[in-house]
Design brief:
Strand order of the largest sheet of chain A: 9-11-8-12-10-13-14
CATH superfamily of the largest domain in chain A: PurM-like C-terminal domain
Helix content of chain A: 25-40%
CATH class of the largest domain in chain A: Alpha Beta
Strand content of chain A: 25-35%
Order of helices and strands of chain A: HEEEEHEHEEEHHEHEHEHEEE
Oligomer: homodimer
CATH architecture of the largest domain in chain A: Alpha-Beta Complex
Radius of gyration of chain A: 21 Å
C-alpha cells in the first residue's frame, strides 16, 4: 500500500493535511446543511429547550464486522440511549481518535457506513473533532458520539415507576452483537454467518409512546440482558423473573456460547430494547412491536417481582440466580 | 504497585468493576446535582432553545504537565470553543478512553484537576461514558468533551463580518502550552519552569460582549496564531498583517523555539483568544482585557488587510509570509 494511502501524524497537526482529511473525508461523507467544518461550534435552534443529552464511546474490534462497522455502531449506540430515554434523536457530535497508519480506504468505508446509519436514523452530525495518535497509542479508530434529543411528552419513564407484576419485554433475539463480534475475531478459530443486531431502537420506543403503562426502557449493551435486570434490582429494589424458554436466542448464539463458555444473558446487544410495561398493556405493546420490521421475534420474557434479585427459570423448571457481571471481560465489544 | 491499584479490562465490562469505577471515581469526583451515573442520558431544561454545540478530543502527552493535566485541558478546550463562538458555556458530556494498567491514583489526580477546572469555569459534567482499552491500544487516558452553551445575543460574530482595517488582538503570550508540553517530554532533554496557559477564555470573550465592533474570535490551539490567521485569509479572503514586536512571547518560549527549531507562531495555546475588532474599538477592548486577571500581556498585534495572505513584520522591519502548516507534527500536544 502506498504511504499516501495511510493516515499520518500530519493529519492531526492543525494544518493542511488535517484540513484535507476533514474537508475531503469527514465533511464530504457526513455532509448535511448544519455541518460546517470551518467553524469550531454549531448553532442549533431547537424546537424545545427541554432536551435529552447523552454520550457514548466506541472501540469495537474488529472495526468492521458482519452487520455493521464501528461507524454505524457509533450512530446506533447514541441514538438508542436517547430513544430509551423517551426522546427523539436529533443531533450528534462526533470525535474520532485515529491511529497513525490506518488505511484511508478503511476509514472511508467506515464513514460511509456511519453516514448511511445517520440518515436511516434521521439524525445529523453537526460538529466534530479529529485527533491522530501514534502507532500503538490507539488501534484503528475510536469514536465518541454525543447526542441531543427532544423529549416526547407522552412518556413518563423512570426506574421508580416500575411495579411488581409489570411485564418485561424484549424486541428481538439477544446476544447477536456480542457473538457476531466474537466470531469476527480470528482468535477464536470460529466462523459464522451471524450478523450483529446493531440498529436504531427508536421505531420500537416510539411505537410505545401512546401506552401510558410503559414504565422504563433500556438498551442491553455491555453486560446484556442480565446487567439491565441487575440494575433494576439495585435501583428499583424489585426483582426480575425471567423465563428462559421465552427469551429469543438464535441457535448460532447458543452454539457459540456453548463452545466458548459464554452466557448469552450477559452478551451485548446493539439493536435491542428491554421495556418494563404494566401487565394490562403488555400484550398490546408486544403486538405493536411484532408489527415492526425486525420485531418479529419480540417477546414477553418475564415479570417484575417483589424480592430484589434476578431469577432465570431454566428450561426444566429450575431456577438460576443471575448476578452482577464479575470477571468476564470481552474488551472492545462496543 | 499493587495490581488492584491499576485499571483492568474488567473496569470496562459493564459489570461490578465498571460500576465501582464510575461510582467511586468519576461520579464522586465530578459530582453535581445533574450528574446521575445510573441513567444513560441527562434531562436538561435550558433557558433557551438557541444553543451552541461543540466537541473536542484530548490526547496530550504527558497527561500531567506544568500548568495543568489532560483533565483541566479537556474542560478548557471545549469551554473555549463555546466562548469564542459568543456563548456562555453551561453543560459538558465526558468520554474517557482508559488504557488497561493506568494507575488509579493518576486517574484520580486528573479527575480532581478536571473537577476543579469545571467548577472554575462554572460548567457541569452531566453525562458520560468510560471505555477501557487493552495495553498498547491507548496510552494513559484520552478524553472527549462535548459542550452546550447559550448564545449571548449581544454578539454578532462571523468571519464574514471582518473588514480591512480591523485590528487583531490577543489576550496574552503565545506558544506557552506547546512549549510547556514539549519541555515536559523527557525526549527533548530540556527542562524549565514554563507553565501551560491552559485556562478558560470566557472572562475575555464575555468582557467584549458590549462592544458591537467585535467581528470574530477564535482560540489558537493546534497550529497556533499562524493557523488562525491563515484560516482568516482562506475563509474571509482578507489578509493579516502581524507585527512581531507587538506579539507577546515569553523569553523561555523564544529560547526553546530557537533550540528545537520550532516557530512560536505555530505553537498551540490553550488559554488564548484572538479577536478581530473594529479599529475604533480596539483600544477599548485592549483596556478591558488588560484589566482582567491574566490579561496583563494582552496586545494589539496586527491588522486586517485586503490581500489574502499572512504577513509577519520582523523585528528589523522585513516581511515574512506565514503559510499553512505543512509537515511539522507535534503529536499529542492537546
Amino acid at each position: 500500500m502506498n504511504k499516501t494511502d495511510l493516515i499520518t501524524l500530519a493529519h492531526g497537526n492543525g494544518g493542511r493535511h488535517m484540513r484535507e482529511l476533514v474537508d475531503q473525508l469527514f465533511s464530504k461523507k457526513l455532509s448535511n446543511p448544519l455541518l460546517d467544518t470551518s467553524v469550531d461550534a454549531c448553532h442549533l435552534q431547537l424546537d424545545s429547550p427541554d432536551i435529552c443529552f447523552t454520550t457514548d464511546g466506541f472501540t469495537v474490534k474488529p472495526l468492521e464486522f458482519p452487520g455493521g462497522t464501528i461507524g454505524s455502531l457509533a450512530i446506533h449506540g447514541t441514538v438508542n440511549d436517547l430513544a430509551v430515554s423517551g426522546a427523539t434523536p436529533k443531533y450528534l457530535s462526533l470525535n474520532a481518535f485515529i491511529e497513525e497508519g490506518m488505511p484511508f480506504e478503511q476509514l472511508e468505508r467506515i464513514l460511509d457506513d456511519m453516514a448511511q446509519a445517520a440518515q436511516a436514523c434521521n439524525v445529523q452530525i453537526v460538529t466534530g473533532d479529529t485527533k491522530v495518535l501514534p502507532v500503538h497509542e490507539a488501534s484503528g479508530v475510536y469514536f465518541a458520539t454525543t447526542g441531543i434529543g427532544l423529549y416526547n411528552p407522552d412518556f413518563n419513564l423512570g426506574m421508580d415507576k416500575i411495579r411488581p407484576g409489570d411485564k418485561i419485554l424484549v424486541n428481538g433475539s439477544i446476544g447477536d452483537h456480542g457473538t457476531a463480534v466474537m466470531l469476527a475475531r480470528e482468535q477464536y478459530g470460529l466462523s459464522g454467518r451471524l450478523e450483529s443486531d446493531s440498529a436504531s431502537v427508536y421505531p420500537f420506543t416510539h411505537a410505545l409512546s401512546k401506552l401510558e403503562g410503559v414504565r422504563f426502557m433500556r438498551d442491553p449493551t455491555r453486560g446484556g440482558l442480565a446487567t439491565v435486570s441487575v440494575e433494576i434490582t439495585r435501583q428499583a429494589k424489585l426483582g426480575c423473573y425471567l423465563h428462559s424458554t421465552h427469551i429469543p436466542i438464535k441457535p448460532q448464539v447458543e452454539s457459540v456460547c456453548e463452545i466458548l463458555g459464554y452466557d448469552p444473558y450477559y452478551l451485548a446487544c446493539e439493536g435491542r430494547v428491554i421495556a418494563i410495561i404494566d401487565a394490562q398493556q403488555a400484550d398490546q405493546a408486544l403486538s405493536l412491536w411484532q408489527q415492526l420490521a425486525g420485531g418479529e421475534d419480540a417477546a414477553i420474557i418475564g415479570e417484575i417481582t417483589e424480592q430484589p434479585r434476578v431469577i432465570l427459570e431454566t428450561e426444566l423448571g429450575g431456577q438460576r440466580v443471575l448476578d452482577e457481571l464479575e470477571d468476564d471481560p470481552l474488551p472492545r465489544i462496543c
